[in-house]
Amino acid sequence: MDTKKMTSNHGRNAALLSILPGFGQFYNKQFVKGAIFLILTVSFFAAFYDTLNWGFWGLFTLGEIPVLDHSIFLLIDGIIALIVTALGLIIYAFNIYDAYNNGKKRDLGLELNSVREQYHNLLDNGFPYLMISPGFFLLVFVVIFPILFVVLLAFTNYDLYHSPPAKLVDWVGIQNFIDIFKLDLWRKTFFGVMGWTIVWTFVATTLQVALGIFLAILVNQKDLKGKAIVRTIFILPWAVPSFISILIFSGMFNETFGVVNKTILDAIGIGAVPWMTEENWTRLALIFIQSWLGFPFIFAMTTGVLQSIPDELYEAATVDGASILQKFTKITLPLVLFATAPIIITQYTFNFNNFNVIFLFNGGGPAIPGQNAGGSDILISWIYKLTMTSAQYGKAAAVTMILSLIVITVALWQFRRTKSFQEEDLM
Amino acid sequence: MSMKKNKMIRLTLSYLIIALMSFIVIYPLLWVIGSSLNPGQSLSGSTMFPENPTLAHYKYLFDLEKSNYVKWYWNSLKISTLTMILTVITVSLTAYSFSRYRFIGRKNGLLTFLVLQMIPNFAALIAIFVLATRTGLIDTHLGLILVYVGGQIPMNTWLMKGYLDTIPKELDESAKMDGASHLRVFWQIVMPLAKPIVAVVALFSFIAPFGDFILARILLRTDEKFTMAVGLYEMVAKQFGNEFTKFAAGSVLIAIPIAALFLMFQKYFVSGLTAGGTKG
Asked: TM segments (chain A) (predicted)?
């Protein structure tokens, strides 16, 4: 054998040979490692052959005989097959990578690690993977799995009329998306809900942020007495679990016995307001409630920032003859906004998906003729209704995908600008 | 003279606004306490300060034969505590690995977490529902806890990783030089220094399941397995108004301890969020 000629090709050869897992390692004379890869591969196929075979058949056909084949269970098994395949492919890729690397080392005339060294290496390099694995597996099953499921479901006709086991579910391509944008009922509902979601997100969040900052600055005035007690009072809405506050408000705004109509508005001399049955009044009430719920958080954050601004800054500004307004717009506001910006942005994404306040206050109602969502439904509560009450699973999944795309786009745009994303060792 | 007058006006206005806001904040809370003391079931004839207050509704809630309230209370505490413990363990391990080791897949893992923390995990509620039905975990607390923990991992991992990054790496490197094992560095060097962020993650992962409504509502089916949020909602929704005074009593009993705890730990919340938000 002409060693000189061969040297430049160990890497390639080993990688090619490891198309059959283990053989690349054998070629590199790492017999133990090769045997482990080979055994892993064989046992992988032995253990998962049925899972994969059945899973992929189910995934493609979604069942052929009604009653006997349960399309949704087949879909679940199909996703499991996909995940198993992905894990298998990762190991497979690692096998090729390892063979190639060691072959390369031989090309360069370096010593390969002994079995003992390999074992120590495995312990060292494997440690982070070992630590991550509990969280990772949980994440795969309760977060990634559901996401894959929803993505696939969005392309099926799964609804009340195609409900297993009596009926089969079929792949319908992008029909759900077409329907949402083309059928009158769906289009009207979608854009109605979408519009209100955007208005809701911006108005409610901006109001709570503005109120929080305003009150923090107000309470922070130096010559104001009783700061501690005022701050405790203003934190209270944050301290009480929000689902309780919302349910309390839904009682207060109730049209027949609610205290808002009966006592408060009566005292001012305004007649009863249809809080629960008129779309726009419900929306107004919701914005009020969310401001009540949300301002303490911003209030607390801003107070923290304000207390860290050195007095000298203001004293210097006073010496330079700055007015109160100038001090506010040139010193206070920029510092506060800079420090709380990331938190303020998460408030917007939070309200975009604020299911609790919408659902617990009035169930997303009142009902509106000509569309299948209530007057105060935002996207997330609409999805809930499509799933839990009208069993429009396929459509619900399609709407979920649209919602997720919006959230991810905004989120990535936001995080591109934050420090953590620019951290050098992330990339 | 005019400066003094200005100051007077400014302070008076401030106090007025504060008084108004305090009224708006406190009124609903007082109202619910008042309602809970009203005799009778509904609120039709109730007043905020009832003439003949009664504790009957509180007694009713503690009557194990008539009401599942105590069970809900226990369920909520159990689920939140277990979620907290599991979250702290998994998040510490994950965050530590991401902060201290450079391994293949680290970058993609971090990016995945970043995206995942943006999508609330109840967005995939159909999937969670179907999956739970398929695995038989529907209507069990175990299923609910697993979903909570999984949902907590991405955000809290980022939060804790941000904090761990600020602990100097020289510390663990010198410990490793002295022959400390991986686990020992993690457990005896880094974790003791990370106590503040562990406290924050623990608080968050306790509060989140406690306040969650949607997942518990989807997964739990029988009355006695409900958590506080679902139970109280059912109480109000079933026959609105007819059990409102009982609901009010139930709310007071849960709101007071939580609010007290919260006010005690409030500083941690704020510092944890600002630390995680800007450095995370």
From this structure: 31-52, 72-97, 136-155, 193-220, 232-253, 284-306, 331-350, 396-415
